[in-house]
Amino acid sequence: AMFTGKMHGRNEILGYHDEMREMIEKQENLAMYLRSAVDQEELFLQYQPIVNISSGETVGVEALVRWQHPILGRVSPLDFIPLAEKTGLIHSIGNWVLKQGCQDILALGQPDLQLSINASAVQLEEQNFIESVMDILHETRFDPRRLKIEITESALMSDIQGVTDKLQQLRDAGIEISIDDFGTGYSSLHYLKKFPLDTLKVDKSFMDEIVATEGDSTIAKAIIDLGRNLGLNVIAEGVETAEQVAFLREQDCHFVQGYYFSKPLDFPVLEVFLAGKRLS
Ligand code: C2E
Ligand code: CA
Ligand code: CA
Ligand code: CA
Fold it and tell me: Which GO terms of type biological process are on file (predicted)?
């Protein structure tokens, strides 16, 4: 009993180091596994419908990358995308996502359906980013006007002039630009007006405020208004309830995306989903 306190303290220190080492090893292992994920065909895409709120029509889909490892199981993009950014693997993963997405969407044979893909700041900063995108569009014969690239608010703010130039080049090629997770970063509204943008995606956190009882939707309202007044299309993301849909309709939000309409779907399920929409 005399030694309990001391032993406890010692164990805690050892425990701390063990945990640190374990964490670092885990990250290194994960990075090692991730390195072979593309070649081993462990990545796949799911597609989440984006719906026109007034017509109910699915106007496009957002491609979301998934990683299914034979031993680790399913790893969330929230865990492996940051690692991919840190290790530089994001470039090959990003190229794979774009190519697979273009091929899948072309196979649907619905010429009006748009494809949205996510690009992180690290991808945008890469010298060859635009060239890679154009190469893949050319190779797959995907119409650039059907492609939307989603860039987070924080990525826009990292290098304003550089990013503006790149977005302009993409737009000159016919590609549309969406600002993702809007309202979570700290964009200067002044710059927001100057960026060549087409669409603003209102972050899910603002949808969470819109609840049937005691919800405060002041900020959600203001953000939707801001987007519309800047002449942008507004997509609300993370829409889960009928109350949220009613609110968004009242606010003249253009498009909606979320579990209320559909979860991200495996490609074969997306085909069925879209076929069902056509019949109804
Ligand atoms: P994001 O671009 O903001 O994507 C939306 C996330 O919200 C997705 O999570 C989606 O599954 C989820 N979501 C959609 N509707 C709802 C809803 O109604 N309720 C809730 N609770 N969640 C909803 P996911 O698929 O886990 O992706 C997480 C993030 O990983 C994405 O956030 C994006 O930043 C990143 N990511 C995914 N795929 C890619 C990719 O191909 N490239 C890059 N660079 N990042 C990606
Ligand atoms: Ca997104
Ligand atoms: Ca988002
Ligand atoms: Ca997000």
Answer: signal transduction
Rounded to an integer, what distance in angstroms lies between the CA atom of residue 78 and that of residue 76?
A: 5
Sole residue written with tokens 């900020």: 219
Ligand 4 centroid – CA 2 distance (Å): 52
Q: Which amino acids bring their CB within 6 angstroms of ligand 1?
A: 48, 64-65, 76-78, 81, 94, 97, 118-120, 180-181, 204, 238-240, 258-259, 264
pTM over 0.90: yes
Q: Each residue of 24-64: pLDDT tens digit?
A: 888 888 999 999 998 899 999 999 999 999 999 999 999 99
Q: Where are the beta strands (DSSP E) in 135-211?
A: 147-152, 176-182, 199-202
Question: For ligand 1, what atom is nearest to the CA of residue 257?
Answer: 15
